[in-house]
Amino acid sequence: MKQMTLLFALLLVFFLAIPASAVEITAPEAPESAKDHMPQETDSFGEALWQLLGSVLKTLRPDLKAACGVSLSVITAVLIVSLLRTFSGSVKSVSELGGCVVIAGLLFRNADTMIAQGTQTIRQLSDYGKLLWPVMTAAMAAQGGVTTSAALYTATAGFDAILSSLISRVLAPMIYPFLALSLGNSAVGEDILGKMRDLLKNSISWCLKTLLTVFTTYMSITGVVSGTTDAVALKAARVAISSMVPVVGGILSDASESVLVSTELAKNTAGVYGILAVLAAFLEPFFRIGIQYLVLKATAAVCGLFGTKRITDLIGDFSCAMGLLLAMTGSVCLMLLISTVCFMKGVG
What we know:
The chain has 348 residues and is mainly alpha-helical. It contains 11 helices and no strands.
């Protein structure tokens, strides 16, 4: 009996004496659409980011060419309508109605493609976040932040579920009735349609601003959105974000400090790969939508020189639709980036 007890004790000591290896925390693999843009080396965050941007920008030339082609077609249509309006009688009114329908037809195909791509990007970012956050939570908990990591994960996952579902299932599809109301208002000239269009646009903007304000306020109260960085660089980045992203640019620029001040924390952590993977999946569709937005803004400005107000407003509404889509995709992306950085502050 004593021999059995001694043998059991020796075996127990043997197993307890086996050195425990450190748990390796690695970020999930980048989404399929992002793999082509992922930099080869991620040791330097700045260099990797520049490589990623260069890779994305190389793919945008066909989109810019196609957008400019549609813009020239729209400008030509507006010019023809303006010439037909010089005639009197029914030709004048019919030409404007027909012009609105033709222009909407020219612009709707690209708008539909961008809406589908924006919705797909939002879902893809949300799906990647569901894989990334448990990894960051485990890394943070392994260094003692069990309670904080659990609270941060719960809040982040909750906000993401609400925001991504609301955008992909409600707000993005609302762009279609927004464009339909815009076409009806421009073609018929009914003020009630214009008011309904404005109400729909304001509702989308209010939902996005409210959710982002609540999210950034929560992060600020918990102390995770804070830090210091070079004042000039931060101010330049904030101005860029505020001007690039319509509707919610101001909110995003205020929260961008959390990402900018924490690039040093990303070194030698799973967070740097996660951030680059998010940007690789986000930047190409974001820039594509941005090209449509800017080209439509320029087209509306040119057509405003010789076109009617109703037709110019219709082109401007298509540009506004792309601006709303930019706000939606930008909101989901920056929320994911801020959340990842918050985890990295606890890990780093």
